[in-house]
Amino acid sequence: MAHVSISACPACNASPLAERIASDALVGDSVVLMLPTIHCSACIVNVERKLNAMTEVKDARVNLTLKRVTITTNCSVPIERFVAALAEIGYAAHELDPSLLAQSEMEKASRHLLTRLAVSGFAMMNVMLLSAAVWSGADGVTRDMFHWISAMIAVPATIYAGQPFFTSAWTALRARHLNMDVPISLAIFLALGTSLYETNLSGEHAYFDAAISLTFFLLAGRYLDHKTRSVARSAAQELSAMEVSRAIVRRDDADVTVNVKSLVVGDIVVVRPGARVPVDGDIIDGSSEVDRSILTGETRPEFVDVGVNLHAGELNLTGPLLVRVTAVGRDTSLHQIAELVAIAESGRSKYTSIADKAARLYAPGVHILSALSFVFWYVYSADLRVSLNIASAVLIITCPCALGLAVPAVTTAASGRLYKKGLLIKSATALERLAQIDTVVFDKTGTLTNGLPQLVELPKTDALSLQIAASLASASMHPLSVALSKALTESGTNMANLTGVEEIPGYGVQGYFGGRLVKLGRAEWVGADAIDETATYLRLWEMEPITFAFQDALRDGAFELLKDIQHQVGDVHILSGDSEHAVAAIAARLQVINYAANETPQGKAAYIAALQAQGKNVLMIGDGLNDTAALTAANVSISPASALDAARVASDVVFLGGRLDNLIGVVGLARQSQRRIKENFRIASFYNVIAVPIAMLGLATPFIAALAMSLSSITVTLNALRVR
């Protein structure tokens, strides 16, 4: 009899049944597949070599940063053929809709900042050399020449390099409020304007060096701040891209491949084994097992038959299904999750960073001092030139260069320390928010646990029964069969000789031993009494069924991390889409009192919102697509690198490796970072207390202003390095 296998990793391996049925989803020209498990150059070589060896493929190119492969084809090819080919060499693959994936704006912004930093740095070095000649005693025509050369270098370079500050300041002023970039921009323009005015009148002092130096230091801070964030796309866009773009619809007894956007409620959709469900709908024919982890987070397949409602994005594993459409497009559950994420993202963006809070007080203060200096000296001396020079000196010497570096210097130092522990900080304000948390919420499957079944123990039975179980388990790629086969192999159990072995989609595996029927699979199929735990059951002819129970293995370091968080934070919760019994068992093992089971993605986000309504600052740690809305809704969030792309994008911090104890001390480091940031603000404030009177008294030459500004920036940076 024919043997049909299903995938241990349902997202990456289609059933051979799919290849025997016509009218599969076809692609032409190009297709984009997500490859969540690739991680190095060897992966790139393996994937490209495998795909380029296929006769239908013109070209295949892997983007390691985005974890994607773009395949150019020379004919219409079933997408599942590419997925199956990659599964053969051990790589999971998901189809993505390239039209919904926007190019990262952050990558472009990072390049622009780096270019402006390089321009300002080069200009600053040259202007400083010319200024050194003036400070050394150049006078008269020679001094004027050096000033004009400085102007030709500094003015265009500063105007080009300072664009990020000017744009930000103008945006703030149009909205009728002040930010840190307003005094920065004003100081730069006033320094350039005053310097050109002085140079034109053969004045002794010019501020070209101060203007370009100020721009360079602040761009360095801005670039450091930018590099602490990972190049990320919107989580909502990632979720939308997970939606299936094509579907097989049955019309007039014929199967036709159409764009999902053309489907309407009431259409009959064919969902082949190994394919994702394109819409929400009810099964009207067929039975199968479905991976519903996209909504529940649990990788244990669920048996479905006529009458069961399916959701877009779920994965059909074993048998073909006919589904009547009940929701399409924006009405599907997957799209509703994406909307939840988008709403939560916009809410988090309202968080006010400590630097912005400081700017609200600092910016008006600087402007007032500069204006008072101008008025006083103009009344006192009646000399517009002297008054403008002193007002410019006040603005330059008080310009928030040190304040501008206070946060990014610490954040970069802390990020470097966390990177050594395998943690990547993506968000500019993640450490600030992490320092404030008082509640931690964990997802269960894939986060606290490995998400893979593990046999609890071998049942006490005879060797022949175990040998028959080993043979049946080896004939299936169902996750429970794979786990059972592994456990029996490790115990030294040999396999029995069976005949007629076949897999019954949605039920289990059967065969014959000595002409007698043997079965391994679902309780009702083999005639066993089901237990509360995850289990598969063995039936040998007329003997009593044998139960093989499984549990989800804890991630390495889970217990140690829970102890650390309970000590530092106190309040710990576990959320899961799994059953009450499974979640309670994990909570008991980890000594966690607060937990909730059978949670939907919307339920998880609502749970987070309820905690926040109680005044809690919540840290969410999760890995699944069903966690994405909760990750985004939380005050701060963390995901493992093994998480789905959308979950990683939604998170503020990503940790590499499989051990949870790498997260130990993260909250403490975040709180230490905040102490250093506040110290930096105090240092900058103390500097201003000393420097401002000097500038207001007219004692600050351009050299003194530039030197004082540089010293304050260096002091702040050195203090930030204490975090390391």
How does this structure look, described?
- This protein has 724 residues and is an alpha+beta fold.
- The chain has five domains: 1-96, Alpha-Beta Plaits; 106-227 and 351-411 and 672-723, no CATH class; 244-331, Distorted Sandwich (Calcium-transporting ATPase, cytoplasmic transduction domain A); 423-451 and 554-671, HAD superfamily/HAD-like (Rossmann fold); 452-552, Calcium-transporting ATPase, cytoplasmic domain N (3-Layer(aba) Sandwich).
- The protein is built from 26 helices and 28 strands.
- A seven-stranded mixed sheet has the order 16-28-27-26-17-24-25, sandwiched between helices.
- A hairpin with a 2-residue loop joins strand 7 (246-251) and strand 8 (254-259).
- Helix 5 runs antiparallel to helix 7 (181-200).
- The chain is elongated and about 115 Å long.
- The termini are far apart.
- The model is unreliable at 1-28, 99-105, 228-236 and 343-352 (pLDDT under 50).
Give a quick rundown of the structure:
The protein is α+β, with helices and mostly antiparallel strands. It contains 26 helices and 28 strands.
Helix content: 40-55%
- What proportion of the residues form beta strands (DSSP E)? 15-25%
Tally of separate helices: 26
Q: In order across it, which strands form the biggest sheet?
A: 16-28-27-26-17-24-25
Structural class: alpha+beta
In total, how many domains does the architecture comprise? Answer: 5
Return Rg in Å.
32 Å
Distance between the termini: 65 Å
Total number of beta strands: 28
Biggest sheet features: 7 strands, mixed
- Overall average residue pLDDT: 77
Give start-end ranges of low-pLDDT stretches.
1-28, 99-105, 228-236, 343-352
The gross shape turns out to be elongated
